Amino acid sequence: MIRILLLSSMFTYVYGANLIMMQAIWRHGDRAPGDLPYPKDRYNETYWPRGWDQLTNKGIWQSVELGIWLRQRYGATVLPIFNKDKVFILSSDSERAIETAQGVSAGLFPPVDDRVWESSYLRYWQPTPIQTAYGTIDALLRPTKVDCPAYDLANEQEESPIAAQINSEYGQMFKWLQNTTGMESIDFWNINDLYDIQRELDHNMPQPSWLNQVFNGTTIMDHIRELKRITRNQEFNSPTKAKFRGGYLVNEFLKNMEDFKANKTEKNVMMYSSHDGTLSALLYALNVSNDQLVPYTATVLFELYDDDTVQLFYKNTTGTAYPLAIPGCLQICPYSNFLALLENVRVRSLDALYSLCGTYNSSTSSRAVATTTTPHS
User: Fold this and answer.
1) Which in 7, 50, 134, 281 has the greatest CB count within 10 A?
2) Domain count, the chain
3) 108-118, pLDDT tens digit by residue?
4) One domain for residues 221 and 256
5) Exposed (0-12), middle (13-18) or buried (19+): which is 233, by Cβ within 10 Å?
6) Residue 373 pLDDT more than 80?
7) In Å, what is the CA distance from 82 to each residue of 74, 108, 126, 197, 377?
8) What is the span of the domain harbouring residue 252?
9) How confident is the model over 83-94, as pLDDT tens digits?
10) Which CATH number characterizes residue 322's domain?
11) Which residues contact 176 (CB under 8 A, 6 or more apart)?
């Protein structure tokens, strides 16, 4: 009988079966913008110590906190220590995702007993191997980067009327923002650039007063946030688009469970470091999205138990793992039902994905995986 204690920092439950496998996928931690949000913005790259697009100190700490949280949740079951035969960590080739995986590993696997190799300022750190899909098109952890004409067509058909509606509804605000920000034009397709202002707000960088001006009863910044939510979710929020962008990742989690149950692998902890679009695609593919933006270090958890049941959880910025139920099943879902209910969205191979996308090419069907260790040399 599994015993799970109530801790202040985590969601807990009592369930009468033993956890035998855990899979987790998270978004990277807080990062700097990729560039100036708009031409007249004054916070250039010198305001971000690690540079554009890089993990911030805040993001590093978020990563370590996630690792600590995972250790509290799973340390008594499937993650007592790091064991290379049982634990696998894969990151996209993005530096911020790799570094987030390093931070998670630092919080999750502090050295104990005979693994303590240094007694002073590195006392609580040990190197952990992180795999990456370096130098390849990463259809698994960066699905939005995959060239997929069939997806583009489906997205365009659904997006066009929404874009037209928003451009009409917000046309006056967009024109005003052009003059205020120095941008050449603003519409449905590039309003997201201004969302990088939120990253500055997250770092307490004072902002111009125009962000608090009101348009149709709502501040400009709140409109920018809502338009970001609409435009981001529009990329994934139908069964067709979700399958194109999330079906291959769904297959990864299901195949991992199938291989473990068939004794094809000893690995019972699989963890993935990725991006907001990756998690959004997955949540829509599972049909459990809450239609909100995915925050930094948000995590989806798959848990397999020895009574042949699967449980699904979502951890956002709180210390709570919220239970999710895929349509057609209870939150504690029989393993066979879980697989059957997700069969239609599952994309079983890269060849199948490229065929579905209309871009099949045998030369693109290989997927190289390189290894790095933490920290970088």
Assistant:
1) 281
2) 2
3) 999 887 777 77
4) no
5) middle
6) no
7) 12, 9, 10, 39, 21
8) 19-46+55-145+239-357
9) 999 999 999 999
10) 3.40.50.1240
11) 215
